Amino acid sequence: MDDSVSLKLPKNVLADLKCKEKVKSMFSLDYFSKMVKASSTSENVSINLGTDYPVRLEFDIAEGKGHVVYLLAPRIESE
User: What pTM was computed for the model?
Assistant: First the structure.
């Protein structure tokens, strides 16, 4: 069973966007959604992506008194 998700955000909700090239990676939707849920109390979340590289999700917690960094390895399909 393949899970997929597509998220499109309007530019006005982005604090910053830096994109040098188009990237594509597959991640476990179950793990990724848990990471995103944990970041829901933070005002700003940084997501770093690269083709077949781990996704890096960073955000502050406890009113800036703590900082969380999650890394999630991509799913690699065997041929």
Answer: 0.76
